[in-house]
Automatic annotation (TrEMBL):
Transmembrane segments: none annotated. One of its GO terms (molecular function) is pyridoxal phosphate binding. It comes from Desulforamulus reducens (strain ATCC BAA-1160 / DSM 100696 / MI-1) (Desulfotomaculum reducens). Belongs to the class-I pyridoxal-phosphate-dependent aminotransferase family. Its EC number is 2.6.1.39, 2.6.1.57. It is an enzyme of class 2 (transferase). This is Aromatic amino acid aminotransferase apoenzyme / 2-aminoadipate aminotransferase apoenzyme. Coiled coil: none annotated. InterPro entries: Aminotransferase_I/II_large (IPR004839), Class-I_PLP-dep_aminotransf (IPR050859), PyrdxlP-dep_Trfase (IPR015424), PyrdxlP-dep_Trfase_major (IPR015421), PyrdxlP-dep_Trfase_small (IPR015422). The lineage of its organism: Bacteria, Bacillati, Bacillota, Clostridia, Eubacteriales. Residues 14-331 form the Aminotransferase class I/classII large domain. Keywords: Aminotransferase, Pyridoxal phosphate, Transferase.
Amino acid sequence: MLEDHLLCWWSASTTEGFLPLREYIASQMQAKEIETKSDNILITNGSQQALDLLAKLFINPGDVVLVEKPSYLGALQVFRSYQARFIDVPTDDEGINIEALDIAIKKHHPKLIYVTPTFKNPTGVTLSKERCRSVAKIVQENKVPLIEDDPYGELRYYGEVVPPIKSFDETGWVIYLSTFSKTIAPGLRLGWLVAEKDLMGKLVLAKQGTDLHTGTLVQRAAYHYLMNYNVTNHVETIRSEYGRRRDIMLQEMEKNFPTNVSWTKPEGGMFLWVTLPENLDAVKLLSRAIEEKVAYVPGAPFYADDACLNTLRLNYSNATPDQIKSGIGRLANLFGKLHG
């Protein structure tokens, strides 16, 4: 009997994914006020594959995709591989500009809209609840599909939880993506998407042509972990530690960075966004930062067009508190030399 049970771990799966795992995800989605069933869920090799499948279905060369300014680099790379034409929509401290989004839809008639509304990569900004509701209404009125990419939603350290855009979706125009990589382990490469029945059938066919199905072993291993270990405590531990590191980074920046440098103060996620004086180029500065034995990600690659060269992304989740203090000190030293 045990051998028969273990054999299932090595057998082929349905393209949609391991049903008990999809049922678990459906229950988690309902906790986020997203009304869905297991039949509306597709298990993917990370949410990056979900992006690729959606691009494959929707985008022909020259088709318009609306993205935030700035946007997630990995998504831009996927859409570029299908020769999409980007129109970027401005953002502020509450996320995407609603009026600008509505105007861009009516003017450019996009095939897709892509947003990361919660603890956005790269800026850490979260779309307000009112704007989430407005975005859902706009895409419904204009009948244009929107991809809501939400890998960081569980990583909130402060403030009130904001419901996903998908929770306000009444007609199925919002396609929701998420992943276990930020809450279990990045090496799992295990994500999912939530879509309506008609689109799901096409996505299943596209996935069959790509890899038949996500690996059975990794799906069952993830499900076993979710069912037999205290996932809530694990996520709380992550939140506590990442939140502590975020606080340390912000405190060190406040103490040490020159007054002409500004940055976001995210309530969760992994990243914050730094804006240097307009005359500085973060790409060119990177080599000097490396000489100081510190690194960052220049902001330019996160722009679909018209990059702001004086921006950069910092990650507080993957360094120890001592490394954060040392790294911010070295960056402050570099910025101070330029400021002086």
